[in-house]
Amino acid sequence: MNKNTVLAWATWIMVFFGFVLVGLGLFKYKEIAGWGFVSVGVGFFSIAWVFNALKGRV
Fold first, then answer.
1. What are the helix (H) ranges across 1-58?
2. What pTM did the predictor assign?
3. Alpha carbons 54 and 52: distance in angstroms, whole number
4. Which of 7, 16, 31, 49 has the most crowded CB, counting CB atoms within 10 A?
């Protein structure tokens, strides 16, 4: 695997776990802990966006 393939896999894994964390925050944890799960999930989406932007440049 080359660098772009690794970044592509990392992007998809981060997006998947971002959806998992947001889903946990919205559906499982209704109290204040849900806000933490959702914020971490959004952070995963932003890191995945950076990984996607780096493809072809590294």
1. 3-23, 33-54
2. 0.85
3. 5
4. 7
